[in-house]
Amino acid sequence: MHYTDRPYFLAGTAAPDWLSVAARGVRLRPRLVEPHCDDSASPTAEFAAGVMQHFTDDDRFHRLPAFLEVSGQLTVLFRELFQADDGFRPGFLGHIVTELLLDAALIAQDHGRLSAYYAAIDSLDPAFVQQCVNLMAKKSTQRLVAVLPMFTREAFLWDYLQDERLLFRLNQVMRRVKLQPLPPKTVAVLKTARSIVEARCHDLLISPAPPHPKDHPP
Question: Which pTM value belongs to this model?
Fold first, then answer.
């Protein structure tokens, strides 16, 4: 929820997640996006830089020891809830619920931050955002023009603050990825998970040390 003073950069940071909902077959890849980054500060360059920021932040966050620890704790909670379910669902939920509850913790600290975020998204030209995506992805989509106004209208990020509403949003995700829906008793698990994430919020926001050069081939 940073970069609200740079709406097209902000749009770039969110675009991969928007596509996972609106057009799952369309992917933004660093090697195709990076050539559009320059120092022009044009809306296209800002969008591209935002997408690259998404990749950087996503990689750092998922390498944090705190993320691995917290998502592991939440996976155990969901496994205990489902009992016989040894499949994909507990690990999937441990991962995404850690992310959603971290968002919720940040929103709770400053409601104005989310209001500013939605105001910035609402200022975008959806057709231009879609044009940027189609310029930088191998496949194209025509769905973002409709999805972006719906995103601001639904304002679903506010629902992360309440366990019952979060369960409703999670079940939308479960349907989208074709996993079994979550029962009402999941609310109790979400309450416990919320306390775990809030207690580790500081740790989850610390960037890890950069990888040693030997970790990656030249």
Answer: 0.88
